[in-house]
Amino acid sequence: MASEPKYPIRDVSRLTGINPVTLRAWQRRYGLLKPARTDKGHRLYSEDDIALIRQILHWLDQGVSIGQVKGLLAEPAPVASGSHWEQAREQLMTAAQQLNLGRLEAELLELTSLYPAELVLRRVIEPWLLALARLQRPDAQLIEQSALSLLKRLMYQLLTIKTGPVIAVARVGQVREQQAILSQYELQGLECRSLDLGVLDPLTLPLAEGRLKFDVLVVILGAGLSQSWFNDMDSVFPRDCFFIGELGTLYRQQGWLNRPFAVTASEIARNHNASFGLVQN
What we know:
Elements: E1 7-8, H1 9-16, H2 20-30, E2 36-37, E3 43-45, H3 47-61, H4 66-74, H5 83-97, H6 101-114, H7 117-133, H8 140-158, E4 166-172, H9 177-189, E5 193-199, H10 205-212, E6 216-221, H11 227-233, E7 241-244, H12 248-253, H13 265-271, H14 273-276
Parallel strand pairs: 4-5, 4-6, 6-7
Antiparallel strand pairs: 1-3, 2-3
Helix pairs in contact: 3-4, 5-6, 5-7, 6-8, 8-9
């Protein structure tokens, strides 16, 4: 017996981590979902729909493109793990090296519209940026700067969410600006609004907290921090404060971290969902 439709699209987004734009695209372009409708035309999803979304996520995580998922839902078969993500990275790199910014923009927009933010970041964008930074050719700097400039502009365009918890994002230590922008994009995928506080200033943080009225502070940890820095800053951070960033693993090994830590914003949301005001699976 089919389960009763009862979840509006925003609730489904919070339950699954898939933003409403992507859910609608999966329905319109690929026929993967068939939610019921209210009398006013609003989508209502059932428990069966949510289970189906999680099946779709399983295949995407394996590296299957969204266009291939429908066939695999009907008849599961072995797949080459990560093949779609590898192809997507190669396409971004080719467009960047050719300085074909129109094609690069189209590829990025396609990825961000059809796939969850966390998957796009972990499987495509972050490895691609790392490969750009490692290019060894005379025009490497031009290629990287052009790609980063385009990515920054697109990420800001995608930050359109108007409701949800407000998460302030700040950087400390040696952290590139792009990390804050990508974290904001990831937070939007979690149905959170975000504020970029830039490089953290301990003197102005209390003033910002009082005026901007954010719910949570997320601090991206960079290189160059010391144990005394963490100790001194502890009294400045608000109660709901979390650390993220790859380098945080090193600080944690030293025993210096005095706030909850995870490498990514998505991991923080899964482990501390009450503070983010989210319902996560």
